[in-house]
Amino acid sequence: MTPSPDTREINADRSDIEALDEIWLFGYGSLIYKVDFPYTESAPVYITGWQRRFWQGSHDHRGTPEKPGRVLTLIEAPKQRCFGIAYRVTLDVFDHLDHREKNGYLRSIQALDFADGDSRPGVVYIGQPDNPAFLGDAPIGQIAHQIFHSVGPSGPNSEYVHLLADALREHDELDEHVFEIDRLLREMRS
Ligand code: BEZ
After folding, report:
1. Which are the catalytic amino acids?
2. pLDDT of res. 3
3. Element containing residue 179 per DSSP (H, E)
4. Which of 22, 41, 42, 40 is nearest to 32 (CA)?
5. How many domains does the chain have?
6. Which domain holds residue 171?
7. Of 83, 87, 59, 84, which Cα lies nearest the Cα of 71?
8. Which residues make beta-bridge pairs with 151?
């Protein structure tokens, strides 16, 4: 039997978040351009030792079980840093988020570097390489091709890439992986 990527049961243990004085959630994907939960503050931040990659399969949002799309996860990359937005939230938002991110994402606590020089713990959803929905690396053209042809209940997979690339540009943030896929998708469309 294929193992289920459903992470809700594991993420139901909130003891790590409950122990935090302030709860900051790190958004590195769609959370950079769209937020559908309440928060009291937000700030641009970096996470060190990780990079953003379209290596996680999406069977439920930007693809289907038969034709999975590709969405982001964070991959360990010593010395690299990844830009994102931190949102200060309350514990109750995790009911919604754990449900939405149930396709292989586990929560972890990582250090977030704020612009004022402060480092604070933040909650991060990561699709680890051992989760059943993880697709991993592939030639960049193949990743773009899969994204181009994938659509799910949340819309076309390519829309996710374009909205993210536009949002990163607005923040003056360069991400070669995202920008190259964005470029290839536009090329395929024309
Ligand atoms: C995000 O930052 O948008 C995000 C990415 C993967 C899982 C959860 C949130």
Report:
1. 101
2. 62
3. helix 176-189
4. 42
5. 1
6. 8-189
7. 59
8. 156
Dihedral-angle region of residue 155 (phi above 0 means left; psi in -120 to 50 means alpha; beta otherwise): left
Provide the CATH number for the domain around residue 142.
Answer: 3.10.490.10
Q: Residue 67: how many CB atoms within 10 A of its CB?
A: 13
Atom 1 in ligand 1: residue holding the nearest Cα? 29
Residue with tokens 């993880």, as numbered in its chain: 134
Coil, strand or helix at 141 = helix
Q: In the prediction, which pLDDT does 104 show? A: 94
Token pair 């709860």 in the structure block, residue:
23
50, 54, 72: residue to mutate for ligand 1 pocket, most atoms within 8 A of CB? 72
Which residues are CB-neighbours of 131 under 8 A, at least 6 positions away?
5, 7, 56, 104, 105, 106
Bridge partners of 88, per DSSP, are 24, 41
Ligand 1 pocket, residues with Cβ under 6 angstroms? 27-31, 72, 101, 105, 125
Query: In this predicted structure, what is the pLDDT of residue 2?
Result: 52
Specify if 145 maps to a domain. yes
Q: Which residues of the chain have pLDDT under 50?
A: 1
For atom 7 of ligand 1, the residue with the nearest CA is 125
